[in-house]
Every structure is written in structure tokens, then in C-alpha cells.
Amino acid sequence: MSPLQVSVQVRACVQNRADACKCVQCVQSPEAFKFNCAQRAHQQTLEVLPLLTLPALISGLKYPIPTAIAVATWSVSRIFFTRGYISGGPKKRGGIMSGLGSLAMVGLILTAAYTSGTWALGGI
């Protein structure tokens, strides 16, 4: 590749995140592509984690067993999501387990909202 091609491709990677995994290193090395995908999956998990932690703490005070089951379901679903993300195909990221993890997270958020509402209206 010429320096001009590298410059154009790097600029395209910065401009469009969808092309980020097609940067020069990723095109030249499948290991770099997998590493890039693993980093993005890890970052996405870190971005979602605060959305899980606070509702889990709130709903866990009133419903500890269902909250533990929901958090365990979400954690296992993230393993499947990460393995699918590393494989490179967008269709492999989803699936039943990923859907169950999302459902568990929505359940935690709704349970935390209900618990907070009952505490606010009932005076804890």
C-alpha cells in the first residue's frame, strides 16, 4: 500500500466508525481484527454496566433472589455477546441469550423504578 492509500483509509476509519475495523492493521492481520472486536465488545460492556448496577442495587434490597438471577442472566448473556462480537459477524452478536440479557436488564430497571416509587410514596 502506498502512503496515500494508508492516509485515505485511516481518514475514512476516523470518519466512519463502521469502517473502524477495516483499518490498515485489521485488514492485514485477522488477529488484529479479532483484538479490535474484543476491545469494542469490552468497551460496550463497560458502557452498559452502570445502567445495570444502580437498578440491581435498588431492586436487590427488596427482591434479592430475582435480582441475583437477573444479574447472573445478564452476565452470562454478555459472554455470548462478546464471543459473537469477536467472531466478526453482526448477526452472531444477537441471539436468544443476548435477548435474555436485555430482558433481564429491562426487568431490573422496571423493578428498581417500582421499588423506588413505593419507597417514595410509602415513606420507605
Structure overview:
The protein has helices at residues 3-15, 24-28, 30-62, 64-86, 96-122. It is mostly helical and 124 residues long. It has a domain at 37-122. The longest helix has 33 residues, at 30-62. The radius of gyration is 20 Å and the shape is elongated. It is a multi-pass membrane protein. InterPro entries: MAPEG, MAPEG-like_dom_sf, Membr-assoc_MAPEG. Keywords: Membrane, Transmembrane, Transmembrane helix. The chain crosses the membrane at residues 102-122. It is found in: Membrane.
Compose a concise summary of this entry:
The protein is mainly α and 124 residues long. The chain has 5 helices and no strands.
Helix and strand topology:
Layout: H1 3-15, H2 24-28, H3 30-62, H4 64-86, H5 96-122
Helix pairs in contact: 3-4, 3-5, 4-5
- Beta-strand proportion: under 5%
- On the 0 to 100 scale, the average pLDDT is 81
Helix-strand category: mainly alpha
Major β-sheet, in short?
A: none
How far do the termini sit from each other?
66 Å
- Determine Rg (CA atoms, Å): 20 Å
* Outline: elongated
